[in-house]
Amino acid sequence: MKTASVKAFHRALDQWYRQHGRHDLPWRNTADPYHVYVSEIMLQQTQVKTVLARFYHPFLEQFPTLQALADAPQEAVMKQWEGLGYYSRARNLHAAAKAAAPALPASYEALMALPGIGKNTAHAVLAFGFHQPYAVMEANVKRIMHRLFAVETATTAELFEKAGSLLNRDEPFHYNQAMMDLGAMVCLPKRPLCHECPAQPICMGRAAPESYPAAAPKKPTPVRRKRVVVLRDARGHYYLTPRTSRFLGGLYGFIELEEDATSCHFNGQDYRLDAMQPLGNITQIYSHFRLDAFVYLATLDVGMNSGDWHPPEAMAKLPLSGAELKILRLLPLPCDARALQR
Ligand code: SF4
Fold this sequence. Notes:
The chain is α+β, with helices and mostly antiparallel strands.
């Protein structure tokens, strides 16, 4: 693309952004790279309005600095992340804080060496947190690149190269924010508003924008069918243990069994599922599968003393996944503990 056309595009984009951009987003009004980093991780899989309404501010109130996050116990970080999903993000955020505190590094190589930071997050932290000339490539910008260069399919590396060739190196902060807003507000997935678009003069795909990128074939979502056993002891305490698996690691869970299980082995004894109280079914959608689980309640006739047994009011303070929160709603809790069945 000719330098003069790119320069004219920068001017038009800047003008459009000044008039229409979402300037009031809190992560655009901070000079703290840590706040930028938290917002980038939250926004990876979650919409702006959800992050804004429920997660960004409470997280930074509890962990206002990278050092505060590094010093916090993992359980507190997971609890604060509860409901946001994709929990490996929280574990990595915490691990990166421990590795980098008291401050994030301002170099691409050092950021990429931290857990959970990929190329796009590193570029975003450098562009928004340190005003360095790196191109950001989130989903909206990817779509714009496909259309501007009229490519149906491209690798992420190719898209980064194209984005780098268009980057306004003098104004990386505003340029990247403007590109993201352009994707969110003008270059929409369906029926893009090309007549309002500052990129129209250089856009090679504007005659048939919806052809770019080519639609990915839809794969059916796999279903995992499980049985969940909730154990309650004679005192009314529930058995919940922290998961150590990569998936949902750090969050507490009840006992999960395969669909064909007929009994639950616990503490040297077998408890038959058909002798337990059936509580009902829950469904939880994850990024790569759907969980369908039938939930049973078994009441033991003794009181248990280990730290894995929790009174109802203490369960609400543990970090729980969406599935466990749904299971809580099925439990026959005493009236004074119903508030946790939110
Ligand atoms: Fe997207 Fe149309 Fe603008 Fe091209 S001209 S970038 S297709 S909105």
